[in-house]
Amino acid sequence: MTQNETLTACPRCGKALEIAGAAFCPHCGAPMAAAQAAPVPKGALALLEKAERQTDPVKKHELLLEAQAQFPDCLEVAQELLFLGRLHERSPKKLDFSVIKCHLMHFYLTPDEFTAAQREQMRTELFEHPDLRRCQELAPDADAFTRKYLERLSRDFINVFLRGSNRYMHSFFGLRLDNRIAKVLASPLAQMLGQIHGDTDLDYDRRTMLYDALYRAFLLEAGNDAKWLDALLAQGGLPIPAKP
To answer: Could you tell me the pTM of the whole model?
Structure first.
């Protein structure tokens, strides 16, 4: 089987490929022979593995900075710094969820909890942070990297702020009233997707990219079961992205 035949979705736009072995995506025209990232240097790999084993975010950040200093053009190092965010700044004296990178998406879940200035700052960090810009420069395809970044951020958000919440998981004294993730999380996901769809402070391309990334993340976390979410989207007149 060739590399093209193994692709089920376009690496750039994320939409499903209907023709196996296609040279170009029928949706966005991107070439399917995706550029390959440079191999990870052995020294960088060793530091990355050491950082992965580290449970203290401060020490993890120090290891990643060391790796960045030694291997400034390594995408994998830049990527780990991007997703670590400000977790190393957390304080045991203050509960601050904003140090968690995926918290950037929270204003799409509970917009009234944030001021207009805070929402704008979160949008800017979501798409313009210097760490993201550096990864885009190092990636063989900046758009494809951005889509994967948003998908991973969305999965992190689902796991930390939705699956980790008694409110959204309908738990009572630690007992989950319904174990069907696809059903239980459909409502908050539909709410978030609706907020993203209506966020005209984001340009259309970014809005669409984020919308599709969150939808794909839900599919991955919910075992590819979107029947409850799709029903809510249709009810609200929201688009249902193509399944990968």
So the answer is: 0.82
